[in-house]
Design brief:
The complex is a heterodimer of chains A (462) and B (101). Chain A is α/β, with parallel strands linked by helices and 462 residues long. Chain A is 39% helix and 14% strand. The relative contact order of chain A is 0.14. The longest helix of chain B is centred in the N-terminal third of the chain and has 17 residues, at 25-41.
């Protein structure tokens, strides 16, 4: 079910309430555990209000289409747990900017989706409230950390959803669940109201059943925001306007080294998708991105360091739950023991990376490597307009396979973290499958050239 | 980085203190082992040819300032609404000096 189908149905006379009831029926008892919160009465009340807006003559760009939100996005008056016991009952006192923009555009906000705790993970198994399963195979992960949002679209519950992508947390689950996604350029979409994980990397990003769905949601949420000092003050060319633009004249660099690292079926599907770009008039060349192999190590020093700083606010004083101790320090420690093991692992790793005696060789050195990676991309983009590579090295892996091996889990992000470190826009598009398990191809573009990505995404899909 | 040889217990204990997280003895050992393995996997950073490069702490999106004027935020009641404990329009928290007997 796509946004276009929804808009056509409403234009043909179905009410938004009827469409909402149908979506709730599709969810049923949510067998994939995509949602952490789904207030049916509230959704139907909102649908009625949207119908009234339509009847009063208001034009709603999203026409009451249901859009699910990752549960690290603040939605006023609703539980926003970040997948954590620490925030299990916390109710957001304000809307994130992206949530307000969706409301203004007439979206029907449709529940809060499951995630790895505080967006730290690649499988959604780190959620304190149970894992989400993959709609294509419930014995496998949906990817992470935005697994619930990916699964909600992949299972056909909603045509679009929002996730957050720090090192691949939208692109990788999109690949595993067989849906489209676009991580915007860093600064393109406001982070106000997104609970911070790594502030120099986080971006809110849309999932969609089709490229057009991704474009429609992106057009609503993108743009400068005075409440986010890292938000770029730039015009946003319409992604919807770029649909149908084709790939003619685009210079695409295939990152062959990544194909060699991926599973054979993944490599084959991505290579075949390249031929569709060529058939549409793009030119393909093989490229390498220098220092690409440093990105995973750099990311897993930088992101935990930023997370250690950002999560220092969860001390039991101002929000969330508290475990009382004999004094302030003991209260901090006992409260923060409620974080899950992966969050604790990253906080301690980040603390190490920033602490005296280690920071120069850890965080600072990783930040120098980040410079090397940024410059390498800039060099490559002198000769190509887009890069093509797999989104992930494998298809969705079985539940439980990597939960005891953080190094193996982190390896799922090897192809997505480089674009994150450089702040570049990047997408994932389903391009095939292996035994029914979806395979995603990733495109990386120059800063603020999301429309080029949209054009190529449409061509990539079989 | 120390990780290449594992994290010694004293360093690890100091990191736990700085992180302000309580863990059980069993969790402590598993965490120390995991962190050692993670840091070992990042050994490539130590040998990377990056000594002459300035660090990038964030990709620039342009300089942005606003007028030095107050802007609306949460009122006191809204700010206190999510607190585990509040009284007299203040957050209530454990004493830094410990409980009075």
């Amino acid at each position: 079910m796509s946004l276009a189908e929804h808009v056509a149905a409403v234009a043909a006379g179905e009410t938004i309430r009827e469409r909402a009831e149908a979506a709730l029926d599709r969810v049923g008892d949510d067998p994939h555990h995509a949602f952490l919160s789904l207030d049916r009465a509230s959704i139907l009340a909102d649908a009625d209000a949207l119908d009234q807006r339509v009847q009063s003559g208001e034009s709603l760009p999203l026409a009451g289409a249901p859009v699910a939100l990752k549960d690290n996005l603040c939605q006023q008056g609703t539980r926003t747990t970040c997948g954590s016991r620490l925030l299990e009952e916390w109710v957001a006192p304000y809307d994130a900017t992206v949530v307000q923009r969706l409301k203004d555009a007439g979206a029907l906000l449709f529940g809060k989706t499951n995630l790895d705790e505080f967006a730290m993970g690649s499988s959604t198994e780190n959620s304190a409230f149970g894992a989400t399963t993959n709609p294509k195979d419930p014995a496998r992960v949906p990817g992470g950390s935005s697994g619930g949002s990916a699964a909600a679209v992949g299972a056909g519950y909603v045509p679009a959803s929002l996730g957050s992508d720090t090192g691949g947390s939208v692109r990788q689950p999109a690949a595993y669940c067989g849906v489209h996604a676009l991580k915007p350029t860093y600064g393109r979409v406001s982070r106000f109201g997104l609970v911070a994980f790594a502030s120099s990397l986080d971006q809110v990003a849309p999932f969609g059943a089709t490229v057009a769905d991704v474009a429609a949601v992106y057009d609503v949420i993108a743009g400068s925001d005075a409440r986010d000092a890292t938000s770029a003050e730039r015009e946003v060319p319409s992604a919807t306007g770029a649909l149908g633009g084709g790939a003619r004249g685009l210079r695409v660099g295939m990152v062959r080294g990544c194909l060699a690292q991926a599973d054979a079926a993944v490599a084959a599907a991505v290579a075949e998708s390249a031929s569709r770009l060529e058939g549409a008039g793009a030119t393909l060349t093989d490229v390498g991105v220098e220092h690409f192999d440093l990105a995973l190590s750099a990311y897993y020093l930088i992101a935990p360091a930023e997370a250690a700083s950002n999560l220092a606010r969860f001390d039991g004083a101002r929000y969330g739950s508290r475990v009382d101790g004999a004094d302030l320090a003991e209260t901090y420690r006992a409260t923060r023991a409620r974080f899950g093991p992966e969050v604790i692992r990253r906080i301690v790793l980040g603390t190490y990376a920033l602490s005296e005696g280690y920071a120069d060789e850890a965080y600072v050195r990783a930040s120098r490597a980040r410079t090397a990676i940024c410059r390498a991309f800039a060099s490559v983009f002198e000769n190509v307009d887009l890069l093509l590579l797999p989104t992930a090295p494998t298809v969705a892996f079985p539940l439980g396979e990597r939960t005891d091996d953080p190094v193996a889990m982190y390896a799922a992000d090897v192809f997505t973290v480089p674009a994150s470190l450089a702040g570049l826009p990047a997408s994932s598009t389903p391009v095939g499958d292996a035994g029914g398990l979806p395979i995603g191809a990733q495109l990386i573009g120059r800063h603020f050239e999301e429309t080029t990505l949209i054009r190529a995404m449409e061509v990539l899909a079989p | 980085m120390d990780g290449a040889k594992g994290i010694d217990d004293a360093t690890f204990g100091r990191m736990l203190d700085l992180a302000a997280v309580a863990v059980s003895d069993e969790e402590r050992e598993a965490l120390r082992r995991d962190l050692g393995r993670v840091l070992e996997s990042m050994a490539a950073i130590a040998d990377a040819p990056v000594d002459d490069l300035p660090p990038t702490y964030g990709v620039s999106t342009g300089s942005r300032t606003r007028a030095d004027e107050p802007t609306p935020g949460l009122d006191r009641a809204e700010a206190l609404a999510g607190a585990p404990q509040s009284a007299d329009d203040h957050f209530v928290m454990a004493s830094a000096m410990g409980r009075k007997e």
